[in-house]
Every structure is written in C-alpha cells, then in structure tokens.
Specification:
Layout (H helix, E strand, L loop, with lengths): L8 H6 L20 H7 L4 H5 L2 H15 L4 E2 L6 H5 L4 E4 L3 E4 L6 H5 L10 H11 L6 E6 L1 H10 L7 H9 L1 H25 L3 E6 L7 H7 L1 H10 L7 E5 L6 H4 L6 E3 L6 H8 L3 E6 L8 H14 L6 E5 L9 H13 L1
Parallel strand pairs: 1-4, 4-5, 5-6, 6-7, 7-8, 8-9
Antiparallel strand pairs: 2-3
Length: 340
C-alpha cells in the first residue's frame, strides 16, 4: 500500500518552525473512547493488547484514520516499564495498576532489575509495524520517575500520595536510589523506542503536581534533567508533560527538551512566558469535550486568543481523552483546529 505524503507538521511545531496549520493530537487518543479499541477490549486485557505488536499497532493506528490527527502515539501503558523491571502488578478495570508488594525499603529498591531492552522487544516490533504504515510522526513515551515511584510505593492509584511523600522525606537515601534506578531504566526504555523508529518521545509526570515547588526541585528535577540530557543525542523532539504544574512551571521547564506539555490549569500566554523559547502543547480541559459544540468552540477559541504566536504550538488536551468522549466530537474538533 502506497503511503500518503508524510505530514510533518507536528515535528515542525515541536521545533518551533512555521507550520501551515496547527497540528493536533490527543493524549490517550489510542484507546479508551474509540470503537475499535472497545471491541478489542472485549477479547483482551490491556497488558495483552500492549504486549502484542499486531494488536498494539492496530490500536495506535485507529485515531489516524478516524480522527485525522497529526501524530500517532504508541499504544502502551506506563506500567510496562515496572513490569519489565520485575515488579509483580496487574491492571484492574476501574481501578488501575495494583502492586502486590509495594516498595517500602532500600531492599525492595535493590531488588528492582535494571531494564534489559530485550524485555520490551514487543514495543520495538510494534513501532516497526507502525513506521511502515503511518504518514504522520509516531510518538513514544514513558512515565516519569516520580509518577512511577508513586505507583510503586502506594501500591495502587491515589489522590493524596501520603506514602510517597513520607517515603521521599523520611528515607531520602532510599528515595534517591529509587529515582536513580527508575531514571536509568527510563533512558533505556525511551532509547529503545527511538532506536526502533519513534520520531518523538513524551515523558508523562501525571502526579508530580502534588509536590511543592521546593520539593520538586530537591527530590525530582535533578533526575528528570538527567533523563532529558541523556536523550539529547537521539535528535528527536522531547516533550515534558505534567499535570497541575503551574506553580512550578519554570522549574518544570528547566530541562533539555523541545516541548512543554500543559494541563488546563494554566493560561497559555503565561505558560509561554514561563517556558521561554520552548514550544508548548495543550491544553483543553478534557471535560469540555463532553459539552455541546458551542462550549467546545468557545474554549478552543480562548486558547488561540491567548497564544502569543502560532509557531511552537501543538494543540492537545490538558490530560487524556475521557472514556465517555464521542469520537465524532474529537473528529470535529480536529477539523476545527485545522481550519483556524
């Protein structure tokens, strides 16, 4: 099958180069709300889908044809990395990752294996399939060390992160070791994806906004800086995304990356001023997409009005697509963005 002309608008926007139209993609566009994914989930659990290259490629491809987005993201789960490091976990529907034996001591941390690329070879195979089919760039990704550490320590999803914060403050040596091991494995994990053909990578720090700016600088930022610096030689755009990071945005952007991903709690103009020359990605509240067309367009227009420049801007949501979102709504949103 002959591929259509390659659409590189996303990559050019990552590099803050002029684009003919604003590129758009959605976090969690591969899965959750789309009909093809829901049909597959009736037969397979999430981890089976993610670790079966032909199925993962199918899920990753669906939003390209259905929605018309300008980039694909590898269908995977952030817990694939801990799994490959020997963590015993399962993904429970309506709950999320559940870990049988959470990390409580230095001994638990030392028991974590360093990532062997062979243990995530299925991701490389998925990427190779996709690169043979896609006419848009492919984004690889990983959870960030703080977010992964919070799952390992809490043992299940939380909205308070009490165990994580106590561990961080009460066991600083063990915390440092955990962040080092996770960061080293993240570099290997993302490098493996890039070497297989991923054309950009995103680091998701979904829970880091629970920290104060001073704690972020002391306990998290040095490790994230190391990750991005280690990937500099790969010559692909690097995106740093976190939620609720408005209070720490200057620090959050103090890494060697091309793009800062923003959630909906920060104004684009203020964020752009804080991050300087870096491109920005964001930041529509995903709940807005459950409203009517008038509400959606008003919120989109507000983002574009706030933009100081169209260069260096990638339209996205402020977090992942909600499962209740209608795919027709997403398609119309893509068309509206492309017309602006």
């Amino acid at each position: 099958m002959a591929l259509e002309k390659f659409n590189d608008s996303f990559l050019r926007a990552c590099r803050s180069e002029p684009v003919g139209r604003t590129p758009v993609w959605f976090m969690r566009q591969a899965g959750r709300s789309l009909p093809g994914y829901r049909a597959l989930r009736e037969k397979y659990d999430v981890l089976t889908l993610a670790r079966t290259p032909e199925l993962a490629a199918q899920v990753s491809m669906e939003p390209i044809g259905l929605l018309g987005v300008d980039a694909a993201i590898l269908f995977a789960d952030i817990m694939l990395l801990p799994l490959a490091m020997g963590v015993d976990l399962k993904i429970v529907d309506a709950t999320g990752p559940v870990i049988e034996k959470p990390v409580v001591s230095m001994g638990d941390i030392e028991a974590l294996a360093s990532l062997d690329p062979a243990h995530v070879e299925y991701l490389a195979q998925t990427i190779k399939i996709l690169r043979g089919e896609l006419n848009v760039p492919l984004i690889g990704f990983s959870g960030a060390p703080f977010t992964l550490a919070s799952y390992l320590i809490e043992g299940k999803p939380t909205r308070q992160w009490i165990k994580t914060k106590r561990f961080m403050m009460e066991q600083p040596v063990a915390w440092s070791r955990l962040m080092e091991k996770l960061s080293e494995s993240i570099v290997v994990y993302l490098s493996t994806q890039i070497d297989a053909g991923a054309q950009a990578v995103q680091l998701f720090d979904s829970w880091v906004g629970c920290l104060s700016p001073s704690d972020y600088r002391a306990y998290v930022l040095p490790y994230v800086q190391r990750i991005f610096s280690a990937l500099a030689g790969k010559k692909v755009p690097r995106i740093h995304f976190g939620t609720d990071t408005g209070a720490m945005l200057r620090d959050f952007a103090d890494v060697d990356c091309e793009v800062i991903g923003l959630d909906w709690r920060v104004d684009i103009a203020q964020a752009k001023a804080a991050v300087g020359a870096k491109a920005v990605q964001g930041n529509l509240d995903p709940v807005v997409l459950l409203g009517d067309e008038k509400i959606i367009k008003e919120n989109v227009d507000r983002i574009f009005t706030s933009l100081p420049s169209r260069n260096g801007f990638i339209f996205n949501l402020g977090h992942g697509v909600l499962p209740e979102t209608n795919d027709t709504t997403l398609k119309k949103l893509v068309e509206y963005i492309h017309e602006k």
